[in-house]
Specification:
2 copies of one chain form a homodimer.
Chain A: E1 11-22, E2 25-32, E3 42-43, E4 46-48, H1 57-69, E5 75-84, E6 93-101, E7 112-115, H2 126-141, E8 155-156, H3 157-168, H4 174-184, E9 187-195, E10 203-208
Parallel strand pairs in A: 1-6
Antiparallel strand pairs in A: 1-2, 1-4, 2-3, 2-7, 5-6, 8-10, 9-10
Chain A binds a DNA duplex through residues 156-158, 173-176, 178-180, 194, 196-204, 222-223.
Chain lengths: 223, 223
DNA sequence: GGAATAGTGTCTCTAAGACAATATGGA
DNA sequence: TCCATATTGTCTTAGAGACACTATTCC
């Protein structure tokens, strides 16, 4: 029996925008593609969803990141989808885009980082994807605890302050910043732990409260 | 030449949560499935992405809505994706979920509406999807112009006020509500047009400014 | 003229932001 | 001691919300 010719199915992939902070500005991690199309060009880490391995699209993105960086469970959020007949030369494709925020020290030195303001030419629609993710992250940073996921396990308020300023590309009043953090109730003091940075008073170290690990705290808004 | 056996590809579908206002509360449009699985059960409108017809996943969702309701270009936004091996008995599937807001009068009477607080049993993960969308819409309504897309072309401030209250399930002070709308700058008076509703002063009619048709206006926020 | 809803004016209070003062440990 | 940064205190002001008032039309 001859089956009816069916059109080739859509390609289903995931892409991840891995953001970190280096030299005081946001950087994205890019990788050289090891297969066509666009072999050897810098591009976002991504790959096919594997029906036999991945329990969800998010799990596929986590797997890709783990394979490329060794990171086990970064902060990972869905950004949205991009799709259409023309974005991938292999055919009609849909990619679910995720973004991850990680502290730079956790990345292996082999990972190539590029300032988001000075990216190389990118294949597919990766440039637009990164622009969208950066805009989203900046927007969320202004009213949530997002940037704490760019900090290592322990950090001082001053360090976090610098991280916020780097992400938002703006200056923030220190006193008000501290109040904001108290409102979010996401941090907890590490008892007795301080960090000195010269001939001055050492700063209290903080960590993200366990119940907020890899979750987001958002300021209340109302109509 | 014998090709290597490849695993069955993932299923790629779109689902749409069509919301409208009826009897003063949010309702979702559901349709009886006309094919297995779950034939004849109420479910969200949805379907396969058709590589040969659809220019994007969003276009696929628009097509599905058009086929089921005749609506040509409702307010339509991506909600996110759901995916996994178990959510669809046909196999590993990913569905891109969209939500649409439409004025009830534009829907053909054949469309079945259910209050979002009293839905029938739904197949797949459709109940969770609707719950997520409703939460998103409520959240956005509190700081944006989202609910205007539930209003017909012309409406009074009082009517829009009622719509906001229905969506948010809360009461809003009228004077402050008017100020908020002015801040959003999304509405424009229809010169000379008013609507009477009894033996009282008629209300000014408004419309969504053309530049905001099917776009969102959001209050500014800052850190 | 009065009933009823449309639309405006104003007060209070919270909280965001600016600014200034104080605290503290190391050099 | 004194320097530099950490941390806290306070003042001003914009805006959210509550409330009360005025406006206008139809009956």
């Amino acid at each position: 029996m001859k089956t009816m010719e069916s059109p080739t199915p859509p390609i289903l992939t995931v892409d991840a925008v891995l953001l970190t902070l280096a030299d005081g500005t946001l950087h994205a991690a890019l990788f050289k593609r090891d297969a066509p199309p666009f072999q050897d060009q810098w591009a976002l880490p991504g790959g096919y969803v594997r029906v036999d391995e991945d329990d969800s699209a998010k799990a596929a993105a986590a797997r890709v990141l783990w394979q490329k960086t060794g990171l086990a469970s970064p902060y990972l959020e869905e950004f949205g989808t991009v799709s259409g007949p023309a974005r991938d030369p292999r055919g009609w494709s849909l990619s679910v885009v995720y973004y991850a925020l990680v502290p730079a020290p956790l990345l292996p030195p082999s990972v190539a980082l590029f300032p988001v303001a000075a990216l190389p030419n990118l294949p597919f629609d990766h440039a637009a994807i990164i622009a969208g993710v950066v805009a989203r992250v900046r927007s969320k940073a202004s009213y949530s605890s997002l940037p704490v996921y760019l900090c290592p396990d322990e950090f001082t308020i001053s360090e976090l302050h610098a991280v916020y300023q780097a992400v938002l590309d703006d200056t923030l009043n220190m006193a008000n910043f501290r109040r904001k953090l108290e409102d979010l109730e996401i941090l907890e003091e590490i008892p007795g732990a301080t960090r000195a940075s010269g001939r001055n008073r050492p700063a209290q170290l903080y960590r993200v409260a366990r119940r907020f690990k890899h979750t987001l705290s958002v300021r209340e808004r109302g109509l």
